Amino acid sequence: MRFQDNGRGMAAPLRSKIFEHLFTTKPVGKGTGLGLTLSRQIIEERHGGRLTVESIEGEGTTFSVALPLTDS
Q1: With 31 labelled, which of 23, 44, 69, 72 sits at a CA distance of 20 to 30 A?
Q2: What is the CATH number of the domain that holds 32?
């Protein structure tokens, strides 16, 4: 599954931090910085999947979610 926007994209220094615990681009007191950290934990640790991001400045950002198929 892929989610793509046509926004400004992210510079490499920002992109390298977005999954870090407590990282946020919001002002102090306006965000917890847990959203992408928790998303990655759930997808990768609980479900054995992969959450990745690709971004090109001036073109946009794409988040990809890959989950393994299993027989239940």
Answers
A1: 44
A2: 3.30.565.10
Nearest alpha-carbon partner for 20 in 5, 3, 50, 41:
41
Residue 40, helix vs strand vs coil: helix
- Residue 20: name the closest of 37, 32, 35 by CA: 37
Tell which residue, 31, 12, 13, has the closest CA to residue 21.
31
- pLDDT tens for the chain, 72 residues: list them: 999 999 999 999 999 999 998 888 888 888 777 789 999 999 999 999 999 999 999 999 999 999 998 765
Q: HSE, CB side, 13 Å, CA atoms: give it for residue 60.
A: 8
Is residue 56 in some structural domain?
Answer: yes
Q: How far apart are CA 17 and CA 24, in angstroms?
A: 9
